[in-house]
């Protein structure tokens, strides 16, 4: 009876796998059995006496995404900038969902003041039922029909592009180049149609010189188009249509990619239909209403030298889903709670039972931060609020550890927050089991959920597990029966991973208000300027006055450097602007740039201006207020009282000594007819270094005149020391 059970189980499993890739031996066995051969004879006829000892029956496993981390995948922002660079061999790309698709200049010609140019947007046809065109991140408002290649296309009707821009868009069904482009450019031919590709042709007039740099800050202009893109096939209804459904987009990338497209025979289409239903489920949001569970929006660029499944990882990450390979066919497991389909109460002794309680600490995280693409910030990267696993920090010894989750194809922070929880929770489940299962588990495949209840002493390992891999194998027992082996690896799972309460778990995010119509690269902050001791350069005994400027870096991600200039007021008018220098993005520290104007003239007024140099050109100038250049404060000592001697009835000699301070450069002598230094007048300012004696005669006096004298040190920057005691004499 046991033998018959084994035969029935084997045949049942085989019958449900008729056309798997790399499964021809299995279909041969089924055919022989249908002709009346015993199972043992079937194995022998197919594999020979030796090969029939053990036959693999189409194992299955979850594809690991670990290799993706080693690829150094560029960020979506970096990739967009790369795609906007002119190229005669543009990268193959698929634009999915609704997003900003960068245009790669693939052909251009200049005639007079007019640029004729063609941009590649999508390497396949697109829906584009709605769209917005941007040049250098500024929206172009169009009038006309850009899809009519026989007419003038769409013309810009608002500043700064009005009268300077005409556009034609090919969705992929175009058969010719726009007639006006062909007639005027003398470069494009009517056969330059880019059939089957989504492209945009433009006629761009440079315009007058005084507005040219403002209208066209970059050459050629950086183009992006916001719209609904690729048309994807839905196996549930057999229709090809525009969709943002994450599972349908993964399926489309597998079926239509240029690297290794999968035929439907090698795909488990029913799993993709199931995953598409999951992705379309309505999920409540905190503000009220619902959004689809998993949407996917972005541009997928295909690269040589990497496995296709690895390149599709950003699409899978948008739904926390995983690919599985079962008997040579590829399927998908969506991120959704699933009930167990089998209960494992015992294991066979064909291999040692391995039970793992703790995973390596390097793979455990206490919190997760998802980086997503924010439409409200011109499709730049933004961080969703951090998800902290309750109790994880205490369980791991009090030290937090963050997982950074890149979600380049997610454009909604609410979806990103849910995915961050799934990633963090999924990684915290550590138990694993490796064992050989009994034949009653034959229906399990990779991705299946099974309940484990092995009894004592294995109670701690009871619970739900996901099958990571299972490799059924059949061997001859005798001429009438076989033995069936099911070596499998299981990983702990829980429905709680996918629970989500928007009211309590969704965190608020302040949406950006940058808008998509900013005027090219943004200017830096207004420079703040100071002078005096904080700005002066001191090197040993040498002190150099300077004007220090500080300004905030530009908010534009395309900023590459900053130009800084200064000008000086000569007492009558401002002089011309002069260059301080150019500061690269490497000079930015804590979001600011600091520099100096040197040398400066103490007492003169100065202004500083700065502007951003970016990929899309240069910004306007940010101009500082005026600052008066000053030297650093310096504390000088008080000199001794001068020696005063009456030489005659008309002459008094004054002798003084400079203080012993290398910073002292002058000695000032004051005089008065009364003993009051406050009302005294400055008589002389004599150059005198440290400890230098100075002697001067006060002549032209009358007999019987009494005079008082004081001395005071001064440095080269005008700082003065204390006033000495008085020295006095009376002429005879």
UniProtKB/TrEMBL annotation:
Ranges of residues in domain Tip attachment protein J: 309-453
Keyword line: Signal
Signal peptide, first to last residue: 1-23
Annotated protein name in UniProt: Tip attachment protein J domain-containing protein
């Amino acid at each position: 009876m046991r033998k018959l059970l084994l035969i029935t189980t084997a045949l049942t499993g085989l019958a449900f796998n008729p056309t798997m890739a790399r499964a021809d031996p299995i279909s041969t066995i089924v055919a022989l059995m249908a002709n009346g051969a015993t199972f043992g004879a079937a194995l022998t006829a197919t594999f020979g006496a030796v090969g029939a000892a053990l036959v693999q029956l189409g194992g299955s496993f979850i594809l690991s995404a670990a290799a993706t981390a080693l690829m150094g995948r560029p960020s979506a922002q970096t990739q967009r900038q790369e795609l906007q660079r002119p190229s005669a061999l543009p990268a193959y790309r698929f634009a999915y969902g609704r997003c900003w698709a960068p245009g790669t200049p693939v052909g251009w010609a200049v005639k007079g003041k007019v640029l004729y140019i063609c941009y590649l947007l999508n390497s396949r046809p697109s829906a584009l039922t709605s769209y917005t065109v941007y040049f250098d991140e500024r929206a172009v408002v169009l009038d006309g029909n850009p899809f009519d290649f026989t007419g003038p296309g769409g013309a810009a009707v608002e500043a700064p592009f009005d009268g300077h821009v005409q556009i034609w868009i090919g969705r992929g069904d175009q058969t010719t180049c726009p007639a006006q482009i062909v007639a005027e450019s003398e470069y494009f031919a009517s056969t330059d149609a880019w059939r089957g590709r989504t492209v945009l042709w433009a006629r761009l007039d440079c315009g007058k010189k005084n507005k040219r740099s403002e209208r066209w800050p970059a050459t050629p202009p950086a183009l992006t188009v916001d719209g609904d893109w690729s048309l994807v096939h839905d196996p549930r209804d057999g229709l090809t249509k525009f969709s943002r459904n994450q599972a349908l987009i993964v399926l489309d990338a597998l079926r239509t990619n240029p690297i290794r497209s999968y035929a439907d025979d090698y795909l488990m289409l029913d799993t993709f239909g199931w995953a598409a239903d999951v992705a379309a489920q309505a999920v409540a949001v905190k503000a009220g209403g619902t959004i689809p569970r998993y949407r996917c929006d972005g541009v997928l660029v295909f690269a040589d030298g990497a496995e296709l499944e690895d390149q599709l990882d950003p699409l899978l990450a948008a739904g926390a889903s995983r690919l599985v390979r079962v008997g040579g066919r590829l399927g998908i497991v969506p991120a959704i709670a699933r009930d167990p389909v089998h209960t494992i109460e015992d294991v066979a002794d064909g291999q040692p039972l391995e039970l793992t309680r703790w995973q390596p600490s390097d793979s455990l995280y206490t919190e997760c931060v998802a980086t997503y693409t924010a439409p409200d910030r011109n499709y730049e990267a933004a961080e969703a609020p951090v998800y902290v696993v309750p109790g994880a920090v205490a369980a791991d010894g009090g030290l937090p550890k963050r997982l950074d989750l890149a979600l380049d194809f997610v454009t909604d922070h609410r979806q990103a927050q849910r995915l961050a929880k799934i990633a963090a929770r999924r990684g915290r489940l550590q138990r694993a089991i490796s064992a050989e299962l009994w034949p009653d588990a034959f229906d399990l495949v990779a991705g299946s959920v099974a309940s484990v209840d092995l009894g004592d002493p294995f109670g701690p390992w009871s619970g739900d597990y996901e099958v990571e891999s299972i490799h059924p194998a059949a061997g001859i027992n005798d001429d009438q029966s076989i033995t069936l082996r099911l070596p499998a690896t299981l990983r702990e799972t829980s429905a709680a991973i996918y629970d989500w309460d928007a009211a309590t778990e969704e965190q608020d995010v302040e949406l950006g208000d940058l808008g998509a119509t900013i005027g090219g690269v943004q200017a830096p902050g207004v420079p703040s300027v100071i002078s005096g001791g904080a700005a002066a350069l001191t090197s040993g005994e040498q002190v150099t006055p300077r004007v220090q400027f500080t300004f905030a870096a530009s908010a534009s991600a395309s900023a590459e450097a900053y130009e800084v200039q200064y000008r000086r007021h000569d007492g009558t008018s401002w002089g011309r602007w002069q260059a301080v220098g150019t500061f690269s993005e490497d000079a930015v520290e804590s979001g600011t740039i600091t520099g100096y104007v040197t040398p400066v003239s103490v007492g003169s007024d100065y202004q500083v201006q700065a502007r951003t140099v970016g990929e899309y050109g240069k910004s306007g100038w940010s101009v500082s207020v005026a600052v008066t250049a000053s030297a650093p404060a310096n504390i000088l000592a008080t000199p001794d009282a001068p020696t005063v001697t009456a030489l005659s009835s008309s002459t008094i000699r004054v002798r003084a000594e400079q203080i012993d301070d290398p910073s002292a450069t002058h000695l000032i002598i004051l005089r008065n007819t009364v003993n009051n230094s406050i009302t005294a007048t400055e008589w002389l300012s004599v150059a005198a270094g440290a400890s230098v004696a100075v002697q001067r005669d006060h002549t032209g006096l009358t007999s019987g005149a009494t005079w008082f004298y004081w001395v005071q040190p001064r440095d080269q920057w005008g700082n003065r020391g204390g006033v000495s005691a008085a020295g006095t004499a009376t002429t005879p």
